[in-house]
Amino acid sequence: MKENIKLFAKVSTTLFTSILNDEQMNNSIVEQIDLQGDRQKYRTNVKAQMTDWNMIDKPGFNSLVNIICNNVKEISMTKYNIPFNPIINDIWGINYKKNDTTLEHDHWPSTFSCVYYINPPKNCPSLIFSELDFQLKPKHGLLVIFEGWLKHYVPKVDFEGSRYTVSCNVGYHK
Protein backbone atom coordinates (compact mmCIF):
# COMPACT_ATOMS: atom_id res chain seq x y z
CA MET A 1 0.00 0.00 0.00
CA LYS A 2 1.33 3.40 -0.96
CA GLU A 3 0.94 6.16 1.59
CA ASN A 4 -0.16 9.59 0.61
CA ILE A 5 2.25 12.09 2.06
CA LYS A 6 1.19 15.68 2.27
CA LEU A 7 3.60 18.41 3.12
CA PHE A 8 2.15 21.39 4.90
CA ALA A 9 4.63 24.14 5.47
CA LYS A 10 4.43 27.75 6.34
CA VAL A 11 7.37 29.72 5.03
CA SER A 12 9.13 31.31 7.95
CA THR A 13 12.21 33.34 7.32
CA THR A 14 13.80 36.68 7.95
CA LEU A 15 15.45 39.07 5.55
CA PHE A 16 18.39 40.78 7.18
CA THR A 17 19.20 44.23 5.87
CA SER A 18 21.69 46.96 6.56
CA ILE A 19 22.87 50.09 4.79
CA LEU A 20 26.59 50.30 4.08
CA ASN A 21 28.30 53.63 3.58
CA ASP A 22 31.65 53.02 1.87
CA GLU A 23 31.87 54.93 -1.38
CA GLN A 24 35.46 53.87 -2.03
CA MET A 25 34.38 50.21 -1.85
CA ASN A 26 31.35 50.94 -4.06
CA ASN A 27 33.44 52.72 -6.70
CA SER A 28 35.96 49.86 -6.76
CA ILE A 29 33.18 47.28 -7.17
CA VAL A 30 31.54 49.17 -10.04
CA GLU A 31 34.92 49.56 -11.72
CA GLN A 32 35.57 45.81 -11.44
CA ILE A 33 32.10 44.93 -12.78
CA ASP A 34 32.66 47.22 -15.76
CA LEU A 35 36.17 45.81 -16.36
CA GLN A 36 34.87 42.23 -16.35
CA GLY A 37 31.94 42.92 -18.64
CA ASP A 38 29.75 39.93 -19.43
CA ARG A 39 31.66 36.74 -18.62
CA GLN A 40 28.63 34.44 -18.33
CA LYS A 41 27.00 35.25 -21.70
CA TYR A 42 23.46 34.97 -20.25
CA ARG A 43 23.94 31.21 -19.57
CA THR A 44 22.94 31.43 -15.89
CA ASN A 45 19.72 32.44 -14.16
CA VAL A 46 21.00 35.99 -14.55
CA LYS A 47 20.02 37.37 -17.94
CA ALA A 48 22.22 40.45 -17.63
CA GLN A 49 25.92 41.31 -17.75
CA MET A 50 27.60 39.14 -15.13
CA THR A 51 31.22 38.84 -13.95
CA ASP A 52 33.18 35.71 -13.11
CA TRP A 53 31.86 33.76 -10.11
CA ASN A 54 34.93 34.24 -7.93
CA MET A 55 35.53 37.98 -7.44
CA ILE A 56 36.55 37.52 -3.79
CA ASP A 57 40.06 39.01 -4.17
CA LYS A 58 39.08 41.91 -6.44
CA PRO A 59 39.20 45.50 -5.15
CA GLY A 60 35.99 46.44 -3.36
CA PHE A 61 34.69 42.87 -3.37
CA ASN A 62 37.31 41.90 -0.77
CA SER A 63 36.03 44.61 1.61
CA LEU A 64 32.42 43.55 1.05
CA VAL A 65 33.33 39.92 1.83
CA ASN A 66 34.57 40.94 5.30
CA ILE A 67 31.39 42.91 5.97
CA ILE A 68 29.18 40.01 4.84
CA CYS A 69 31.07 37.46 6.97
CA ASN A 70 30.81 39.67 10.07
CA ASN A 71 27.08 40.19 9.48
CA VAL A 72 26.47 36.46 8.99
CA LYS A 73 28.30 35.67 12.25
CA GLU A 74 26.10 38.17 14.08
CA ILE A 75 22.89 36.91 12.44
CA SER A 76 23.74 33.32 13.32
CA MET A 77 24.29 34.13 16.98
CA THR A 78 21.34 36.54 17.29
CA LYS A 79 18.68 34.57 15.40
CA TYR A 80 19.83 30.96 15.81
CA ASN A 81 22.12 31.13 18.86
CA ILE A 82 24.70 29.14 16.92
CA PRO A 83 28.29 30.19 16.24
CA PHE A 84 28.87 30.17 12.51
CA ASN A 85 32.19 30.22 10.68
CA PRO A 86 31.21 31.60 7.24
CA ILE A 87 32.99 31.01 3.97
CA ILE A 88 32.11 32.79 0.75
CA ASN A 89 31.55 30.08 -1.85
CA ASP A 90 30.91 32.46 -4.76
CA ILE A 91 30.69 36.22 -5.17
CA TRP A 92 29.89 37.97 -8.45
CA GLY A 93 28.83 41.32 -9.85
CA ILE A 94 25.92 42.14 -12.14
CA ASN A 95 25.12 45.13 -14.32
CA TYR A 96 21.42 45.11 -15.22
CA LYS A 97 20.23 47.30 -18.08
CA LYS A 98 16.61 47.89 -19.09
CA ASN A 99 14.62 44.69 -19.59
CA ASP A 100 17.36 42.45 -18.14
CA THR A 101 16.06 39.84 -15.72
CA THR A 102 16.98 37.05 -13.37
CA LEU A 103 14.93 33.87 -13.48
CA GLU A 104 13.40 32.54 -10.27
CA HIS A 105 15.91 30.42 -8.38
CA ASP A 106 17.42 29.71 -4.98
CA HIS A 107 20.97 29.17 -3.79
CA TRP A 108 20.55 25.85 -1.98
CA PRO A 109 22.71 24.28 -0.53
CA SER A 110 24.26 27.60 0.53
CA THR A 111 23.27 28.51 4.06
CA PHE A 112 22.92 32.20 3.27
CA SER A 113 22.82 34.34 0.15
CA CYS A 114 23.33 38.06 -0.21
CA VAL A 115 22.55 40.92 -2.56
CA TYR A 116 24.20 44.34 -2.36
CA TYR A 117 23.05 47.40 -4.33
CA ILE A 118 25.16 50.28 -5.66
CA ASN A 119 23.46 53.41 -7.03
CA PRO A 120 20.27 51.74 -8.31
CA PRO A 121 18.52 53.99 -10.82
CA LYS A 122 15.00 55.28 -10.38
CA ASN A 123 12.33 52.80 -11.48
CA CYS A 124 14.74 49.84 -11.63
CA PRO A 125 13.31 46.42 -10.76
CA SER A 126 12.80 45.15 -7.23
CA LEU A 127 14.05 41.85 -5.84
CA ILE A 128 10.99 39.58 -5.63
CA PHE A 129 10.70 36.83 -3.02
CA SER A 130 7.83 34.81 -4.48
CA GLU A 131 7.35 32.48 -1.50
CA LEU A 132 7.02 35.47 0.81
CA ASP A 133 4.90 37.51 -1.60
CA PHE A 134 7.34 40.34 -0.94
CA GLN A 135 9.21 42.87 -3.07
CA LEU A 136 12.36 44.61 -1.92
CA LYS A 137 13.08 47.93 -3.62
CA PRO A 138 16.82 48.51 -4.17
CA LYS A 139 18.47 51.37 -2.29
CA HIS A 140 22.04 52.60 -2.51
CA GLY A 141 24.25 50.70 -0.06
CA LEU A 142 21.53 48.17 0.86
CA LEU A 143 22.90 44.77 1.88
CA VAL A 144 20.31 41.99 2.04
CA ILE A 145 21.16 38.63 3.62
CA PHE A 146 18.68 35.75 3.41
CA GLU A 147 18.54 32.00 3.79
CA GLY A 148 19.90 30.21 0.70
CA TRP A 149 16.77 28.11 0.08
CA LEU A 150 14.56 31.17 -0.44
CA LYS A 151 13.35 31.54 -4.04
CA HIS A 152 13.76 34.96 -5.63
CA TYR A 153 13.94 36.70 -9.01
CA VAL A 154 14.29 40.06 -10.74
CA PRO A 155 11.56 40.94 -13.27
CA LYS A 156 12.07 42.70 -16.60
CA VAL A 157 11.58 46.43 -16.23
CA ASP A 158 12.18 49.31 -18.65
CA PHE A 159 14.42 51.82 -16.83
CA GLU A 160 17.34 54.12 -17.59
CA GLY A 161 20.92 53.48 -16.45
CA SER A 162 22.68 50.57 -14.78
CA ARG A 163 21.45 48.57 -11.77
CA TYR A 164 24.70 47.37 -10.17
CA THR A 165 24.50 44.50 -7.71
CA VAL A 166 26.81 42.05 -6.02
CA SER A 167 25.49 38.61 -5.10
CA CYS A 168 27.14 35.88 -3.08
CA ASN A 169 26.67 32.48 -1.50
CA VAL A 170 27.76 31.82 2.07
CA GLY A 171 28.46 28.38 3.46
CA TYR A 172 29.83 27.02 6.70
CA HIS A 173 33.58 26.55 7.08
CA LYS A 174 34.62 23.76 9.49
Structural notes for this entry:
With 174 residues, the chain is α+β, with helices and mostly antiparallel strands. 20% of the residues lie in helices and 32% in strands. It has two helices and eleven strands, in the order βαββαββββββββ. The chain has helices at 23-36, 61-80, and strands at 16-19, 46-47, 49-50, 86-96, 101-105, 112-118, 127-129, 134-136, 142-147, 152-154, 163-172. The mean pLDDT is 93.
Task: Sum this structure up briefly.
With 174 residues, the protein is an alpha+beta fold. The protein is built from two helices and eleven strands.
Anisotropy-based shape:
globular
CATH class: Mainly Beta
Average pLDDT works out at: 93
Q: What is the CATH architecture annotation? A: Sandwich
* CATH topology term: Jelly Rolls
Strand content: 25-35%
Low-confidence spans: pLDDT under 50, at least 5 residues?
none
Q: What structural class do you assign from the helix and strand content? A: alpha+beta
What is the number of independent domains?
Answer: 1
Strand neighbour order, sheet with most strands: 1-9-6-11-4-3
Helix content: 10-25%
| CATH homologous group name | q2cbj1_9rhob like domain
